[in-house]
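Input (structure):
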């Protein structure tokens, strides 16, 4: 769904968050003490043997529309934090950690419901959906020793378009 189909209120919220995006990392680091910095709930699996973080990013971006998620708490040892918008209100949020573990959840977007997003109200696992998105890039066996953040694949601006209905 394109932005033109957003309601007046949704457009205002989106404009507010676009202004906040450039300074959010600084704000997030100042308030990180409010967040448990360990790993999020909902283990999905591990990066599959022979697959790289760069390949995973390219796959998620090209095949499923995942992109950078600026408005997210930063967990210790995370090397990737990307989202796929389902609508203005809901998103899939995927994280990969330096040991290759992959976790993800389905939640409110910060743009639509900041309080519900940051307090994790109605967060869901949606493991089957994540397994579909990850395909051959996920394994139930750990093999990775240590991943580092990859900057070779440009981040997709996922806040620009929405898929699904916006009610």
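Output (sequence):
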């Amino acid at each position: 769904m394109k932005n033109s189909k957003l309601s007046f209120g949704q457009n205002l919220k989106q404009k507010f968050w676009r202004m906040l995006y450039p300074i959010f990392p600084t704000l997030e680091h100042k308030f990180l003490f409010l967040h448990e910095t360990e790993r999020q709930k909902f283990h999905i699996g591990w990066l599959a043997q022979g697959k790289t973080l760069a390949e995973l990013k390219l796959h998620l971006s090209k095949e499923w529309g995942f992109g950078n998620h600026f408005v997210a708490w930063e967990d210790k040892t995370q090397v990737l934090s990307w989202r796929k918008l389902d609508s203005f209100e809901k998103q899939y949020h995927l994280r990969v950690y330096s040991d290759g573990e992959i976790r993800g959840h389905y939640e409110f977007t910060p743009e639509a419901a900041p309080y519900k997003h940051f307090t994790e109200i109605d967060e869901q696992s949606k493991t089957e959906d994540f397994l579909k998105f990850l395909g051959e890039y996920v394994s139930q066996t750990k093999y990775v020793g240590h991943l580092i953040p990859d900057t070779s694949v440009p981040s997709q601006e996922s806040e620009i378009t929405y898929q699904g209905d916006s009610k």
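Notes: Strands lie at 43-47, 67-68, 78-85, 90-97, 101-108, 138-139. Residues 3-139 form one domain.
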